[in-house]
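Q: Please design a sequence for this.
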């Protein structure tokens, strides 16, 4: 085991300079176990990565406490050039942005990003030295049709076909019906998909990758429901939307402590 708990905060398309200042203040003042204890616990406390909109990345990166990192919410699928409005992986690397979220369901649904396109993006971002939070998840219709695992497997397969090294990838399982709806997956529902996804990796990639890859849950995670979810053996952390803009994000980070209980 030894998968370090991972908590991502996806700010989505939110924030003004004033709001960003406030969120950074909350993050910087939040009580999380100190570094020496973290070192002692090793796998038991969180790797924390917050993802503001592109325009706020430099300011957040420069003001954020050093043990927290930043992620972009997207990047272009290949080398930059004549692609108006896009931001390339090289630019993020150049700015020292270590992480990028790719394949979020909002981009898949609203901007038509296909499984293959997301797979290409993951491969290109990794090739530029970025670490990737790759999002997968089914819609309500797909869940009700009993095809959750088929959907999630197809999304993961499109990535697996394009990459060899999984050490810089975190998979975020985010059921679409749970995103921004207040309708969180039950701990058992999350565990079931996470365990199936880990089995899929074991069979289709390798037992080592299955064992070491963090699979985090996203979809209406709050300070109130995080501990129960975190207690599940295959839930390695969270990708948090709405609650990542609020003080309760600190409580979500601290749910990592249930892994040491
Ligand atoms: O989409 C999400 C994180 O990427 C989840 O959003 P909410 O936590 O607001 O449901």
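A: Design:
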């Amino acid at each position: 085991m030894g998968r370090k708990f991972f908590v991502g905060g996806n700010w989505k398309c939110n924030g003004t300079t004033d709001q960003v200042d406030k969120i950074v203040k909350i993050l910087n003042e939040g009580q999380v176990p100190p570094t020496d204890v973290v070192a002692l616990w090793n796998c038991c406390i969180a790797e924390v990565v917050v993802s503001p909109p592109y325009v706020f990345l430099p300011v957040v990166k420069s003001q954020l406490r050093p043990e927290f990192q930043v992620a972009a919410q997207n990047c272009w699928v290949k080398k930059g050039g004549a692609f108006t409005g896009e931001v390339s992986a090289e630019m993020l690397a150049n700015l020292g942005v270590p992480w990028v979220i790719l394949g979020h369901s909002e981009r898949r649904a609203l901007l038509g990003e296909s499984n293959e396109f997301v797979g290409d993006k993951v491969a290109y971002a990794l090739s530029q030295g970025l670490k990737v939070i790759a999002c997968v998840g089914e819609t309500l219709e797909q869940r009700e049709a009993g095809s959750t695992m088929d959907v999630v497997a197809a999304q993961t397969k499109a990535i697996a076909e394009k990459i060899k090294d999984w050490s810089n990838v975190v998979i975020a399982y985010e059921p679409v019906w749970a995103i921004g709806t207040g309708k969180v997956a039950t701990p058992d529902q999350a565990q079931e998909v996470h365990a199936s996804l880990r089995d899929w990796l074991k069979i289709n990639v390798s037992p080592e990758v299955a064992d070491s890859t963090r699979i985090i849950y996203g979809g209406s995670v709050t300070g109130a429901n995080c501990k129960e979810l975190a207690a599940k053996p295959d839930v390695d952390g969270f990708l948090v939307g709405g609650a990542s803009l609020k003080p309760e994000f600190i409580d979500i980070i601290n749910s990592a402590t249930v892994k040491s209980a």
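Q: Thanks. Anything notable?
A: The first strand starts at residue 6 and ends at 10. The chain has a mean pLDDT of 95.
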